[in-house]
Design brief:
Blueprint lengths: L17 E7 L3 E6 L36 H17 L6 E4 L11 H15 L4 E6 L7 H7 L4 E5 L5 H7 L8 H11 L3 E5 L1 E3 L6 H14 L3 E5 L10 E3 L2 H15 L3 E3 L1
Parallel strand pairs: 2-3, 3-4, 4-5, 5-6, 6-8, 8-10
Antiparallel strand pairs: 1-2, 7-9
Helix pairs in contact: 1-2, 6-7
Length: 263
């Protein structure tokens, strides 16, 4: 098990393929889609702040038996969208996230195509969104799939590899420069960055300066700045105060010209 002393097994997992809709601070009324296992977390990171707890093991690219099939996912989504449309519910987004990193599903491209067709049929006003930790964006095939989504919300919690290794704790081969180049190649992305203090912190001036330089390099549509909202895997982390987050957002806008919002 990839845990730390006193760590917890994954908890708070989504127990199905489709969940919600849920009112979201960032995405409006959002219907969630979990393309990952329902009994365990599957992720390329072992983030200290994850609300799902520690990642139990590194992802195995040869092990797919726990993953829901594209057919099962599309069927579940159609049932949910049909019921919501009949009930008069108007969705803002259909969001791919779930129990880990969605780009680890080997058939995500097929799933995205099927989901887009269903969206067009049942909820044409809704945007297809994906939340990714950016770990796989260096792969061309992953970027091609991500282009199928209207909202590409990509993680970047630090601008230096040392801090990312301490905070996000990659479980696969990882190169920050490959991630930066991959996110830049995507274009029109939203960056999502979580800030913490405590056992590990990413709010020191020198760390923030490196992160802001990466934001300037990527030039996203928007940067979403936030802190802990739920109990993290590592209880040694602490939430960053809103006034500090607002100052971080101000620095981003001042130094890069990129819009930043605090959540």
């Amino acid at each position: 098990m990839v845990q730390e002393p006193g760590g917890r097994k994954p908890r708070g997992l989504w127990e199905g393929i489709v969940y919600g809709p849920i009112p979201s601070r960032r995405l409006g009324l959002s219907l969630g889609v979990n393309v990952l296992p329902i009994a365990s977390k599957l992720c390329s990171f072992n983030c200290r702040y994850c609300q799902l707890g520690w990642t139990p093991r590194p992802p195995d690219p040869e092990r797919h038996e726990d993953l829901p099939t594209p057919e099962l996912i599309v069927k579940a989504l159609e049932e949910a969208l049909s019921a919501l449309a009949e009930g008069g519910t108007s969705l803002d987004t259909i969001t791919f996230s779930g129990n880990g990193e969605p780009t680890l599903h080997p058939s995500l491209d097929e799933i995205a195509q099927g989901s887009k067709a269903l969206r067009d049929r049942y909820a044409p006003q809704a945007k297809l969104a994906i939340l990714s930790n950016s770990s796989t964006v260096g792969k061309e095939e992953v970027r091609q799939t991500l282009h199928r989504f209207d909202l590409k919300i990509m993680k970047l919690d630090a601008g230096d590899e040392e801090t990312i290794r301490r905070l996000n704790r990659p479980l696969m081969s990882f190169s920050l420069q490959e991630v930066i180049e991959g996110v830049k190649a995507l274009e029109e992305v939203i960056l999502q960055s979580l800030f913490v203090r405590g056992r590990v912190s990413n709010i020191q001036p020198e760390i923030l300066a490196l992160w802001i330089e990466r934001v300037r390099e990527i030039r996203p549509l928007l940067v979403q700045v936030y802190s802990l909202d739920r109990v993290p895997a590592d209880r040694g982390l602490e939430k960053v105060e809103r006034n500090v987050l607002e100052e971080i957002a101000r620095l981003v806008e001042e130094r890069t010209g990129v819009k930043a919002e605090v959540y």
